[in-house]
Amino acid sequence: MTVFTIAGLTLTEAVRRRTLVGALLLGLLVLALSGILFFIKARLQYRVEIGRMDPEEAWGEFYPAARSVITVLCLAAIKGLGGLFAILLAGGAISGEIERGLLAVILPRPIPRWHILLGKWIGMALILTGSILLWTVLAWASLTYQTGANLTPMLRAGLISVLFPIVFMTVTLSLSTFAQRVFGTSLAVALCAIGWFDGILNTLGSPQVYDVEVLRTLANAASLIMPQGYISWWVWEAVEEIVTETGPFGRIGSSPLFLRDWGILHNLPHLDAWYVGGYVLVTLLAGVAIFQRRDV
Predict the structure, then answer these.
(1) DSSP states of 156-223 as a string?
(2) Could you tell me the residue ranges of all domains in the chain?
């Protein structure tokens, strides 16, 4: 089928451009972040040896807390790097090939345009999924080796984290059907920033802080424009048994759970999950519709 041929060509192009090497280097960065725990452990061991810290306090309180923080740091890095990688990978995927004249050669053949877009989406999704899973396994293996603890929830969180780059890539790919590479990539980054602000606005507007309803409403709107906040919650819930909350207000910068709460209230469970899935599908279909009408 043409779709899978295009997907294969996308993977081949990624290999040719050494995109996979970049993914491996980012994985090594995540691995390096997990290694911070090694230095923390060495420092705690030193303080225990010189008598400046009680062993029970060091290994029963400080070290588990440090492991929790480093775990969160690694997952946040996987989220952030995955999103950035997705935007750079998909930026100009269609418009760039139009500008270089590549699609002018392919499109005169009896190949539906949606085959091209879907094939590219599948190819990029495979690259991003493999990258996120690799980074997660590296961080999980490192922290498990260092602590000897059962950190299996990290693997579940990694599977969920795949959704971050999938959402970002879908948005960027659809934007590339009409926007030039720089403009489309910049617009994708701006949309992601809006999604990131939902947690800040939600925290500032919460009754525990300033209790401003307008900020909470803006946070809800931002969570709909770019639903990355819901994925963040799923990741957190996957690892909450091995990660402790910090701060007087719980998770500072937490995205609102507007859709989940509204769905439960109206007997529509898992509405947030349905929304994220529908968001990806509708965004991809919008890209197909725009691509079908664009002159090449």
Answers:
(1) HHHHHHTHHHHHHHHHHHHHTTTS-HHHHHHHHHHHHHHHHHHHHHHHHHSTTTT--HHHHHHHHHHH
(2) 2-292
In tens digits, the chain (296 residues) has pLDDT values of 789 888 998 898 888 888 889 999 999 999 999 999 999 999 999 999 999 999 999 999 899 999 999 999 999 999 999 999 999 999 989 988 777 766 655 655 678 889 999 999 999 999 999 999 999 999 999 999 999 999 999 999 999 999 999 999 999 999 999 998 899 999 999 998 998 889 999 989 988 889 999 999 999 999 999 999 999 999 999 999 998 755 433 454 588 999 999 999 999 999 999 999 999 999 999 999 999 987 76
Angstrom CA distances, 86 to 90, 179, 190, 237, 285, stand at 6, 17, 14, 24, 19
> What is the DSSP secondary structure assignment for residue 247, as one 8-state letter?
S
CA angle at 242 for the pair 236 and 247, rounded to the nearest 5°: 65
Contact 151/242 with Cβ under 8 angstroms? yes
Residues 38 and 170: their CA atoms lie apart, in Å, by 37
Residue with tokens 């139009």: 98
- The two tokens of residue 115 are 């085959």
Type of residue found at 40 = I
> CB of 234 within 8 A of CB of 156?
no
DSSP single-letter state for residue 59: I
Q: Who contacts 112 (Cβ-Cβ below 8 Å, separation ≥6)?
A: 2
DSSP H or E run through 125 = helix 113-147
Q: What angle do CA 155, 174, 18 make, to 5 degrees?
A: 60
Cα end-to-end distance, the chain, whole Å? 23
Q: What is the DSSP letter of 62?
A: I
